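Data card: per-record layout.
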Amino acid sequence: MARSKEFEENEVLEKAMRLFWEQGYEKTSMSDLTDHMGIHRRSLYDTFGDKHSLFLKAMDRYGDKVSAALTGEIKRSKSAKQALQIIFSFMILEDEETPPGCLMVNSAVELAARDADVDSKSTRSFTLAEQLLKEIIVWGQRNGEFTLDKDAEELAEYLHNVWVGLRVMARTSISEEKLRRIANTSMEFLEV
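The structure for this 192-residue chain is written out next.
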């Protein structure tokens, strides 16, 4: 008779996600994972497959969480400019409960050049982020907040590059003040 699971799958996946986010894929061992997740190695394999499969599931979980958090905040925005400010604040301000930076960006830097699955997930995440930015820019162009002199898709590509850069810089000791200056200067490119 099969033994029932003694853990909640989403809870332990959350723990794995945070560990990968903090340490990266290569530095995180199976022992680190089982210790941090509080499950046995056999349970990890039975539930999530191997380390690589677990990592890909952790990337999916991270993407879903960030998307839900940003979408909820943006829907409450009264203007496109406010929506972009929320995004930039999200990129700059770190929650004390989470590791710095972005799991997607960190994973792309660490693995995308040699791991097609990570490249695919990272690229898809980046494409979705650019689409979100484009929608906000089009909203701002319609409302007269943002310039019509530049193509919304090209502006979204540019702002996403700033977004990724901010997430990388957030992992360093660079001051929040400097990161905010970069975000504000980037916003100026959109103004009428």
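Known properties of this structure: The chain has a mean pLDDT of 93. The domain at 59-188 is CATH 1.10.357.10 (Tetracycline Repressor; domain 2).

See the next section for split statistics.
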